[in-house]
Design goal:
There is one protein chain. This protein has 457 residues and is α/β, with parallel strands linked by helices. The protein folds into two domains: 2-84 and 414-442, Roll (Urease, subunit C, domain 1), CATH 2.30.40; 86-403, TIM Barrel. The chain has 16 helices and 19 strands. The protein has helices at residues 2-21, 108-115, 129-140, 171-183, 197-209, 223-229, 256-264, 271-282, 291-295, 306-311, 314-328, 335-351, 372-383, 388-395, 397-403, 443-449, and strands at 24-26, 30-38, 47-55, 58-63, 73-76, 81-84, 86-91, 94-98, 101-104, 118-123, 148-150, 188-191, 213-216, 233-235, 286-289, 356-358, 420-423, 431-436, 439-442. Strands 1, 2, 3, 4, 5, 6, 17, 18 and 19 form a nine-stranded mixed β-sheet that branches. A five-stranded parallel β-sheet has the order 12-13-14-15-16, with helices on both faces. The chain is globular, with a radius of gyration of 22 Å.
Length: 457
């Protein structure tokens, strides 16, 4: 019986590897990308007409005059652009199913992240942590096409939790929670909206003992309080910070609409917001930008993209388009103003020395889809006033630095892993080839394989 099981598992492994292989377009040991425009992820100006040499999965050379070894596979990419593979820092493997619940997208999302140029992700909270851990194993082994995954544990939440989340009982359980999930392979932790000050403090202490980090989408706790407790990262930016809500006290989580209305009236250059920015920068708290999900709350945004709609199941399409119609019909929405406040906040945070990272957050009304949303995040950072090169740095190197892996990914430099994304011209939405560890994947084939899947699996 045991030998039969081993045979079956071996067959499954081979079948998985064969499935992933059908998306590979470039697999030579030595590959030269010639005449390509390089945006290296450091924020430096783009360099035109470069040659980038990949040798056995690593970047061996990059420059205007690189000797190409005999027998190398040569790709003429004149007019195209190469960037480091994106490091998505607020990614999920789930997608809204309606009625406040979410389905795991274990099939479609890994391939769509990779197709979009995202070669590394941190899941920004998990609803099916064992699925995320198993997906990490599958993508690491090459059985499933997808990015390298840094899994975050289940949401650390308090009373008032979503039905798919476990509410912590007290600080002692928060400590035990962190220790258990670390024991099974979780490397990041996320606090959520109803966690108490005591529970968050205990979780941070437990994570730091393990040399791991804690982020949060907070409501019960304002940003300056969270910084004082030692949190490492805050998700979403100004939009969800409740510290400005009049009369907020203790572990209260104000109604979201109250927070949104309050924050839409804030002056980003004013003393209150500037004090928060200074406190975050002084405490070395990173902020994750998630502009794509917020954009879907703004009437008549974003532009409809048929490629995104085509990835959705018919039911998911109806759900999203219905949500979009309701949003667009709301003439009293605070979001046109609030969204612009968030853009201003992110610029001010970076100008003050803050560490800004990028993610997409595929939640909300369903308009944000893996990969496509990460590309849109870069476009929206440019809309916020960053140069394209700065936006790429936020979406690549900054995330790698936070994760402690900038020595091998996050920028284009000799000796680093060849995680790269190549797109047509200067349009990041026209992805051509995505290299992960020097192996090139056909973006169009990956997207085609996920057609009609988002919302189902």
């Amino acid at each position: 019986m045991r030998s039969l099981l081993i045979t079956v598992l071996a067959a499954v492994t081979v079948a998985g590897a064969q499935q992933a292989a059908r998306f590979i377009s470039e697999s030579a040991s030595v590959i030269a990308l010639t005449h390509v425009r390089v945006v290296d992820g450091t924020g430096a100006p783009a360099r035109a007409d470069q040659t980038l040499l990949i040798d056995h999965g690593a970047i061996a050379a990059v420059g205007a005059s690189v000797a190409i070894p005999a027998g190398a596979r040569v790709l003429d990419l004149a007019g195209d652009t190469v960037i480091p593979g994106m490091v998505g820092m607020h990614e999920h493997m789930f997608y809204p199913a309606g009625a406040g619940t979410y389905n795991e997208m274990a099939f479609s999302f890994p391939r769509l992240y990779l197709a979009g140029g995202v070669t590394t992700i941190r899941t920004g909270g998990s609803l099916e942590p064992y699925a995320d851990l198993n997906l990490k194993g599958a993508t690491d082994a090459g059985r499933t096409p997808g990015p390298e995954i840094y899994p975050t544990g289940p949401y650390m939440e308090g009373v008032g939790a979503n039905l798919q989340m476990h509410p912590l009982a007290d600080a002692a359980e928060a400590t035990a929670f962190v220790r258990y999930w670390a024991s099974v392979g979780i490397t990041n932790y996320k606090a959520y909206m109803h966690i108490t000050h005591a529970e968050l403090a205990a979780a941070i202490a437990a994570a730091h003992e393990l040399h791991e980090k804690v982020t949060g989408h907070l409501c019960s706790i304002g940003y300056r309080d969270a910084a004082a407790l030692g949190i490492d990262n805050l998700e979403h930016g100004l939009v969800v910070d409740t510290e400005f809500v009049p009369g907020k006290n203790g572990d209260e989580c104000p109604a979201q609409n109250t927070t949104f209305d309050t924050n839409s009236r804030l002056n980003i250059a004013g003393p209150e917001v500037q004090a928060t920015i200074k406190a975050l920068v002084a405490a070395h708290v990173a902020v994750t930008s998630t502009l794509p999900v917020f954009e879907t709350f703004v009437p008549n945004r974003p532009p409809l993209d048929q490629h995104v709609l085509d990835t959705m199941s018919p039911e998911a399409q109806v759900q999203y388009l219905s949500s979009r119609a309701r949003t667009s019909g709301n003439s009293k929405s605070v979001w046109p103003v609030l969204f612009q406040k968030e853009l201003q906040f992110e610029r001010a945070f970076v100008a003050a020395g803050g560490h800004l990272m990028a993610g997409l957050d595929p939640t909300g009304g369903g308009g944000v889809v893996a990969g496509f949303g990460d590309q849109r995040e870069v476009e929206l950072l440019v809309e916020a006033g960053f140069s394209f090169e700065q936006a790429i740095q936020i979406a690549t190197l900054n995330g790698a630095q936070y994760l402690g892996i900038a020595d091998r990914v996050g920028s284009i430099a000799v000796g680093k892993q060849a995680d790269l994304a190549v797109f047509q011209g200067s349009d990041i939405t026209k992805m051509l080839i995505v290299f992960k560890r020097g192996v090139g994947y056909d973006s169009a084939k990956l997207i085609a394989s996920a057609r009609g899947s988002v919302g189902l699996h």
